[in-house]
Amino acid sequence: MKPSPTRPCPMCKVPVEWGAASPHRPFCSERCRLLDLGAWASESYRIPAEGPPDDDAPAPDAH
Ligand SMILES: [Zn+2]
Hints:
two-stranded antiparallel ribbon; elongated; 63 residues; alpha+beta; binds zinc ion
């Protein structure tokens, strides 16, 4: 009898049995799934600075 493969839960790192016994995989539980979803959602709320600042300063002309 082979042992069931496991993967660490992305949230709390506990081994999650990789099979029908773990309906919430890759998470160990619905709680971790929701936590991850929340973390992801709050990540996407962070609006990245749109466009880099103008950086076309003329090169100094050394004469
Ligand atoms: Zn977990």
